[in-house]
Amino acid sequence: MKKMQNTRSQKKNLQPYGMILFLAIYTVILINS
């Protein structure tokens, strides 16, 4: 049960981080082009 909750919370924590990472890569591509 605890392992399930841990993975769920990790996914929630990774979601905003993934968005920031995506935006960073997107801006880099825009600057390079």
Structure characterization notes:
The protein is mainly alpha-helical and 33 residues long. 94% of the residues lie in helices and 0% in strands. The protein is rod-shaped and about 45 Å long. Keywords: Membrane, Transmembrane, Transmembrane helix.
N to C succession of SSEs: H
Sheet with most strands = none
Average pLDDT confidence is 81
In DSSP terms (H or I, runs of 4 or more residues), the helix count works out at: 1
Radius of gyration: 14 Å
Distance between the termini: 48 Å
What is the SS-derived class? mainly alpha
Share of helix among residues? over 70%
Query: Roughly what fraction of the amino acids lie in strands?
Result: under 5%
- Low-confidence segments, given as residue ranges, are none
Give the overall silhouette.
rod-shaped
Total strands? 0
Features:
1 helix; 0% strand; 33 residues; single chain; mainly alpha
Quick rundown:
This protein has 33 residues and is an all-alpha fold. The chain has one helix at 2-32.
Secondary structure topology:
Elements: H1 2-32
